[in-house]
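Pair request: fold both.
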Amino acid sequence: MSYRVCFVCTGNICRSPMAESVFRARTVEAGLDGLVEVDSAGTGGWHEGDGADPRAVSVLEESGYESSHTARQFQPSWFSRIDLVVALDAGHLKALLRLARTPEEAAKVHLLRSYDPAAGDDLDVPDPYYGGMDGFKECLEMVEAASEGLLAAVREQVEVEAV
C-alpha cells in the first residue's frame, strides 16, 4: 500500500504543482517511487482542468523536473485516502483544517516549510502568480529546501508502515 502525499495551494497552478514535481523527483531519487504517491490540488476550483502556469513549467523544466499537470480542487473526501496533506501557506492550512471533519483528518495537514529547519518562523511559500519569474524561482528554492526534511519524514512513515 502506498503512502499518499498531496500538496495544496490556492488554484493548483503554481506552488503545489511545483512542490508535487520536486517531491516526486525526490521520492524517485530515494527509491521510494513505488511506495509513495505524490499529488497536488488547490483550495479553490478556479483553474480546474488547466495546466500549470507557464512560468512554473518553465522554472521546473529549467531545473530538470517533470512538469505535466492538470489543476483540480481538493475535496474533503480525499482525507480518507491521503496520508499527508501539505499546505503551501497559512491560508491553505486554515482552509484545509476547516475541511477536515475529524481530529485525525486535521492531524494530516502540515505546512511545507515546517520541514525546512532554515525557514525559522517564516513558513509561508509566497504566491508567485502576480509577479515575475524571480518569484517562481524563489518558490522553487523554498520547495527544494523543504523537500529534504519532508522526504525524511515520509521515509520514516513508509518504514513504519512496512514493519
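--- second member of the pair ---
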Amino acid sequence: MQRERLIKKYPNRRLYDTQVSRYITVADVRNLVMTGIPIRVLDTANDADITRAILLQIMLEEESGGEPLFTANMLAQIIRFYGGTLQGMFTRYLETSLDLFAKQQQEMTQSWTENPFEAMTRMTQKNVEIWADLQQDFMRAAGFNFGAKRPKKEDDSA
C-alpha cells in the first residue's frame, strides 16, 4: 500500500503537495485520487483535516459537468440518512459495497483472458454469497439477530 500523500491548504486557498514540494490544483488532487494514491489534506491555519471537504469539492465539480454519477433521487436518499440512527451502518454498508464493486471491476478486467461466460458465472455466484453475508451483517448490526452466519455449502470447504 502506498504512503499517504500530505497536502497542505494555505490561507491563500492554494494547495501544496509536500511530497513533490510544489503547489498543485484541485485537478491534480483528483488525479492523485484517480491513480489510487491515498491523500490527506490539512488546513495550515488550524491543522484541521479537510480531506473530506476537498474530496466533496472534487465530486461536486464532477457532478456539475458531464454525466452525473448520482441521480437527484439517490442524493435525496443519502441526505435522509444524516442524523438518523442508521447513519453509521449506512456508511459502513456503502463503503463495503463500493470496495466490493471496485474489487470485482478489477477481477473482471483481469478475467477477460478467460472464457467470459465462466468468469461471469463464477463472479455472479460469488456476488450472491458476498451480498447475502453483507446483508446479514447489516441486519445484525441493526439489532436483528438471525443466529449464526449462513452455513457453508459442502463445496465451500476450500
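Observation on the second member. The chain has five helices and four strands.
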